[in-house]
Structures
1.
Amino acid sequence: MKDSMIYYSVGALLYCPANKETIANSVAGQRFGKKYSLALCLEDTINSDYVSEAEQQLIASLHQLYASSKQISFYLPKIFIRIRCPEQIEKLYKALGDAVQLLTGFIIPKFAPENADSYIERIRLLNEKAAKPVYMMPILESPCIIHLQHRSDVLYTLKAKLDAVEPYVLNIRVGGNDLCHMFGFRRQSTESIHDIKPISAIFSDIITVFGMQYVISGPVWEYYNGDHWDAGLIAELDQDRQAGFIGKTVIHPKQIDLVNSAYQVSKTDLEDAKSILNWDEKSPALVSGSARSERMNEYNTHYRWAQKILFLSEYYGVT
């Protein structure tokens, strides 16, 4: 399990096309609030004929944002670039110049055995020279993880490759819509992706393989207006948490607060977590009643849970 706050603090990751000209002003004007991360996308949201233009706009946006950060004070989110190919990593990193200080890392789409080594090697080489860590967040969404006969082999192969650069793997992400696309599925605003059994099974396998070692973020919710969009998101977030996800990809600013609220921890959980983490190791007993005498706390079986609760409370807060 990750033992540093950085891995739990991506939170609500707001996706934005990299060619959006107003993004720097929106961030500097704190239009999206003060608790979110930002993904500038060069992949699925950009027509393949306009990638070069989108790259230039992305570079211009980050230079503008960097200049603004030197003049006024505002919340700077963690910023990631969702790339299309491995070659963009070094290319964009160099092109950003001083503005690279704003970059947290790169999002790797359709991460699969055939491209993993190329992405990983570039991240490794970049971190040998970089002044601060450059993280990667691979997205598991390729068709190769769908086929049941080979899924476990593919997932464990990818994990073994990522383990070589584990400190730089900030989150594992899942592409819910891409996986649904393979089956022709699309959930309504009253439905959860966890109720689509083939997709839920894939998520379960991903969490089983990666969840003991990495933080895994929940899939995008594509509704932000209309009937039930917010109730549907809240319900899916509840299932996200139960499944083992932390944080979520969002596609509209209205979704950010709901994600942040969903991952706040209860006061009861925080009290018990602190009690477990401060356990007297010389005590003859490794089990006791909870702070409110409502449940059992056992050091050996609840310690990792308690660590996670503490990290979540520090970033998301307590309800």
Note: The radius of gyration is 20 Å.
2.
Amino acid sequence: MDGHFALKKIEELQPQVVTLDLEMPGLNGIDTLKEITRRWRLPVIVVSSHSTAGASITLKALSLGAFDFVAKPEDVSAKMPEIAAELIKKIGAAAQSTGVHPQFLPHDTPAPLGAKLQPLAPTRIIAIGVSTGGPNALQYLFSNLPSDFPGSILVVQHMPDGFTELFAKRLDDCCQIRVKEAQSGDLLVAGRALIAPGNRHMKIKKLPLGNVAMLSEEGPVNGHRPSADVLFHSVAQEFGSQATGVLMTGMGEDGAAGLGEIRSAGGFTVAQSAETCVVYGMPKAAIERGYAMRVAHLQDMPGILQAQCAVDRGRGETVEVKRAANTGSN
């Protein structure tokens, strides 16, 4: 009925998993979530409206320690089987998870003004695949990279359409590197991360005037669009030994095969450790197949990526970033 009732029931029933509507009378969803994570550190799956306001409050919930979320469209009845299947899968994963990792919950600390540098040609291309637990893991990783980070980062985070743009802006506001939702034609530049938009695959292509990201609406791969395997395959083909593939916390096996392709092409591959994953599915699948050259704790990943990109930064040439009149900078 409301948050106060929920807290009493949690104390009485001691559940393994909680599903939480963010829109409730009395004690609202966000305040209820704060109490749950403070008192019990239970995995909480947020049920959120599929709207701009809903996306914003959902990202807030994830930053406070929510395990994952399920987006609720306006016409719930028409998509009830899909929502139910997604919720069941996430409840199962939450029940097997280790709960909240307080040490990796982000702080809303804005990046220093003027800290973001002019774009240079990157020394290395870094492709990241991540799912459940990804928003906090990425914020931790990106907030520990300097503004002059010499690599170009491409991210597939399993997240619905309408959420990724706000997520990218949130990261950009609190990290020294630049972060944006990818658009077709975005240049791959040092010190910037491109987040694949929800419901579109992201690939990369080498062109005479610069290397760019390309978006596609091809069918889902491994049940996902965007898919980490699609990105990793493209990175392996185009950049080979200049590429680094990273698989982080998430359900399922998306990205495992693609990480193997990056390794076979001469690139470097990393998988996040079980101890620091919210869900160990994606990294575990790659590790068990022998595709991860290194298994690393989340807190060690910033240093690993910087070491991979460590070359003479003076070689980088300034890249012209053209501004489209109606879409903002690429």
Note: The CA atoms of residues 128 and 246 lie 5 Å apart.
3.
Amino acid sequence: MPLRPLNLGIVTRITLLWTALFAVGLTAFTALAWAGIVREQLEALDVDLSSTATFAATRIAEHNMPTATDLQDAEAPDASVLVIRHGVARVIGPKTFSSHFVAALAALPLNRGITLADGDALRAYAIRLGSGSRIVAVVSMRTFQDEERRAGYGFGIAALPILLLAIIVGFVLARRSLAPIETMRRIAAQIAHEGTFTHRLHLDGKDELARLAATFDDMLGRLEQSFVRERAFIGDVSHELRNSLGAIIGEGEFALAKSDDAQRCGSALAAIVARSRRLAGTVDDLLLLARADAGVLPRMEHVDINELTARVTAEVQQRESGPPVSVSLSEEPFTLLAHSELLERVIDNVLVNARHAARSRVALMISGRDDMVQIRVEDDGPGVPEPEREAIFRRFRRGDAGYAGSGLGLALVQAIVRAYGGTVSVDRSPWDGASFLIELKREP
């Protein structure tokens, strides 16, 4: 039967990782500390052996061969001393050595502690006594090894509660550090359950999770605004379609009721056609808005903006009533990579809006700045108050009750311009009216 992987939570995984890293660090620290203590003890033992050998050498220099009792007053009272002269060794102390071991002691390097074995582990330290002579202090390592083991056990026993404390601290810190993630999960579940975007995290701090929470809150705010806009848009679409369809149905019923009156029947049919065309235009605008929002626009082509603007301006003045438009084209030819019909729609909508609002004058100017083409349309109408300059680009937004349009013209302008990477804004004109500025990137 195959083993299933453990489904451990993030807190548990972080705690285990922290425990493993801490255990490795604690083990390394303990090993280094234990090795340091062992080394210091070994160096201290070598110092004691050196002092014992020097003590024996001093007694011999005074023509008094030291005895085992004399060595009890030395730094290493348990040590034995070998006096080696011309290959002959004399042992002073409680321990005896094999001839093979004595030969090894006779060849030891001077002034240096060496660990040897003669049954038991021994530590030896040799100093020069004279020409061809030396004194070697030797002591058993059994006591030293017992202390070494006790030190190791002590470090091991002391490390266990430290490791347990590290596990508890790591678990608490991981749980507290990841608490905002659980809050995010809970809020996401509430949003999914309630279908609203009103909840926020509002986490304080400047760490990564606090910045993530701030981004999450900003995303929720944008989603809420988008949700509100889309809901209002659906309501506006429903209202617009319902009104138009209701009017068409009413006119049709009236025509049926007056079918014997040719004049009234004709008027009703004309009204039906007008309403149907308006409804068809609204549907076309909605479809174009949807394509622009999705970035699905017709194939690009090279468009001469001066030529296109002059043609659209002439068509608008011929088709619509209103003040004449003063056109100022650029002396430099500007070419855009766009779709000519969509750009015509943009300029047409802005011009129609300006002529509807103007009292006596409308101006259109084409200019260039850096790598951008600027199309500015100004009028001497009432203008747009600053608080409403963003709102006029909303869908189904009408400036006044007498406006016969669908309220999608400026929304289409903004959607198309943004789809081509440009911007559109409104400000105050020199005549205290509205000044619309469209900026589009030109071809290099």
Note: The mean pLDDT is 79.
4.
Amino acid sequence: MTKPLEGLKVIDLTSALSGPFCTMMLADYGAEVIKIEPLAGDQTRDWGPMEEKSGDSAYFAAFNRDKKGVTLNLKSDKGRELFYQIVKDADILVENYKVGVTKKLKIDYDTVKEINPEIIYASGTGFGQYGPIAHRPCYDVVAQAMGGIMNLTGYPDQPPVKVGPSIVDHVMGIYLTVGVLIALHHKDVTGQGQFVDVAMLDSIFSVLENATINYTVGHTIPQRQGNIDPSITPFDAYECKDGMVALGVGNNRLFEKFCNKTGLTHLLDDPRYSDNWQRTLHYIPELRDTIRDWCKQYTKKEIEDMMDDAGVPCGPVLNIKEAIEHPQIKAREMMVHCQHPTMGDIEIQGCVMKLSETPGSVDQPAPLLGQHNQEVFGISEAEEDELIKEGVLSSYRTED
């Protein structure tokens, strides 16, 4: 079956997570992605967990599947010449170097567009291409801190907490992908390439949702509230007999259904809970305590079943094992098996976007270091070995 991005050639100069997450999505949906690594490899080849027998990084394997892998010393003249050779007929280039690095390496947008005027050149950086701190390096935890989300995460009586997974990297990776596809459509219409500038800080700032308008319109600085939503009530996680459940009672109609199903119908006659905003203003302590007391009488499954019957959004709080094994996750193929050349059978996350006619899929494992040097650069094994001796390439074949 044809994939929607087949025929597109993507040069992947990214490392860590945000950039590789973008190019992974492009690869899953059919683009030919050529991942260029430094001679020592992407930094995530050293990020755990390491598969026990091979010692290889499962982290790298998870986010670099479906890509071809080459190595290049871009500080060398021969390395740059090989790069210029493969960028000539590329459609897209994605990089996430610190601002200024590509110019020093002579692989920046101005240089590349002289070689390929129609190239879509996407850059993901910590703080974007301009602004007073654009020059700084960045990782997810720093962007979470500066973007406001860390100060909103956790409980009021505890210090700020980062969101568990690297949420900034994922959101930025998605924005990079969207930016590339928008630019690709523009190119299809006009034939014109362009530069796509996406920042980690901008990306996480964009998801602050009601926090920004609570400040600009409500004139308050939102603080940590645990699992409580500042705009919707009840919208919280509650302890029950065997764990916790999350309830999202997002409007008046759902609140009526919730009260009727739980037997808490007296809440419908209380003016403090007459609409969503009143419930939000008066959630603590009485309404929260009432719902807490009700939940403690039942198991997660009992509450889930009751809310399902009533049509009220509800779900158990699951650990990773439970989430992976949930029938819905399985039905949606959100975990898939991949045969890796050194790790063997590994299970990794599948494709999120389900397209009826041109679905994506995980078809190939992440490449070994320099695995596709000969194919991509059109060189023989002997020529590759010579370039390795000269410090231009590296390969898993010659590792000790």
Note: The first strand starts at residue 9 and ends at 13.
